Amino acid sequence: MKTNLMDSVDFTENVPTEASSDSILSDTPRPNASAFAQSPPPSGDKTPELTSGVSTRCVHGGEARQKSEGSITTPIYSASTFTFESTDELLDFVEGRQSREEYGRYGNPNERVVEAKLAALEGAEDAILYSSGMAAIVGLLMTKLSAGDEIVFFDQCYHRSREFCSKHLARFGVVTRQVRTGDFDAMEAAINPRTKTLVSESPTNPHLTCVDLEKFAAIGKAYEIETLIDATLATPLNLKPIDFGVDYVLHSATKYLGGHNDLLAGVICGRKELLDPVRGLRGCLGSVNSPHNLSLLERGLKTFALRMARHNENGMAVATFLENHPRVDRVYYPGLASHPSHAIAREQMNGFGGLITFTVKDADWKQTAKVVDAARIARIAPSLGGVESLIEQPLVMSYFSYSPEDRAKFGIADNMIRFSCGIEDSDDLIADLDQALAAV
Ligand SMILES: Cc1ncc(COP(=O)(O)O)c(C=O)c1O
């Protein structure tokens, strides 16, 4: 496994500070507004050098050391707009001499902190938050693609991402080409001079296939095409796509990053130069978070590394149990040697996450539903990555309106169950699944 978690990241970067709002009143020329997210804090407010381990980044990354009124937590700036003392001050802002907040759709102080924390966790230059993971995907692709452009993506993916690409982008004249996940020859064959973006998840949802990121990024570079990895299932603790040369990393922060099944959010990380136009379009789309939502996300992130370690442990324990269960046919978990992606996962990941997909032996969809219904700890719900374990049957939850042929095409079996391990005790989750499997 790569030991890239301890990479040195200066998490004092990108920090909005109280001192920076004081400077609003000074005459000192300031960088323009879009540079604000990259401005280091004034020296008097610099967070002392701390070891930049991942847990330390979770707790302190992106935050000013001294906050308003000495508050240890970031205050919630519940403002839709931000006032100017005078027209001169407004001119300082519009003429780029002063960086500051203006209007909530373009950003707010809570967002700056969480974006900086996420950039520090990902080892990225910049991060842009959205109101959901889907809003992030839409925001990025709408920025980067124009009529006549083409996009190539690996076919195993979150069904709404696939739907957005193949159904909605098509309405704007963007051509979508799907190729079999991991088939790099097919990906290369699908590329032509109009191709602008290559997209994949790793691991994929719900088959947990891991894509060789070195190859993926290399193809992008060879053809001068931008690459996007949706690493929601991996998280920055388990996988750092940027280290492999991928241009954009996307997360549904609704999942492990928020971690408590109490918020929706999405984030794209990458180089600032590439993200600036994406941030610009977000200001038009308006797909931003409320300061209260961001405060919840900031709190969730403080314990992200701790929670994720438990998700990884539980995932491995439950997957191993399921693999040895007589009522289970097949288990999809990249930490198991039996998973086709195991070698790649071991090479490029630090842990394998909490999501497991499995099939019930000799069961039709109704018998499979009985197993789901018999679970006493896991709750029946879509989503994953929260502290509460969740269970669902993809056929019923997400693919009920699909034809049997399309379900077969996307590998959604009638007897398939997706289990998201929470942070409960693994013995309890195992005992619960054992009794649930006895229902058939
Ligand atoms: C891999 C993946 N990407 C993106 C999304 C979309 O995220 P959100 O629900 O936050 O819009 C999901 C949602 O389940 C997902 O599983």
Overview of this protein structure:
The protein has 17 helices and twelve strands. With 440 residues, the protein is an alpha/beta fold. It has three domains: 18-120, Aspartate Aminotransferase, domain 2 (3-Layer(aba) Sandwich), CATH 3.40.640.10; 125-299, Aspartate Aminotransferase, domain 2; 304-437, Aspartate Aminotransferase, domain 1 (Alpha-Beta Complex). The strands form two sheets. A seven-stranded mixed beta sheet has the order 1-7-6-5-4-2-3, with helices on both faces. Strands 8-9-12-11-10 form a five-stranded mixed beta sheet. It is globular and about 75 Å long. Pyridoxal-5'-phosphate binds next to helix 5. Belongs to the trans-sulfuration enzymes family. Residues 1-72 are annotated as: Disordered. Residues 14-37 have a biased composition (Polar residues).
The structure class reads alpha/beta
The tally of domains stands at: 3
Q: Label the overall shape.
A: globular
Alpha carbon gyration radius: 22 Å
Mean pLDDT: 90
Cα-to-Cα separation, first versus last residue: 38 Å
User: What is the class of the largest domain in the CATH system?
Assistant: Alpha Beta
Secondary structure topology:
Layout lengths: L17 H5 L31 H7 L26 H8 L14 H14 L3 E5 L2 H12 L5 E5 L4 H13 L3 E5 L4 H7 L4 E7 L11 H11 L2 E5 L4 H4 L9 E5 L13 E5 L1 H14 L5 H12 L1 H20 L4 E5 L9 H7 L6 E6 L4 H10 L4 E2 L9 E3 L1 H4 L6 H6 L6 E5 L5 H12 L3
Parallel strand pairs: 2-3, 2-4, 4-5, 5-6, 10-11
Antiparallel strand pairs: 1-7, 6-7, 8-9, 9-12, 11-12
Bound molecules: pyridoxal-5'-phosphate.
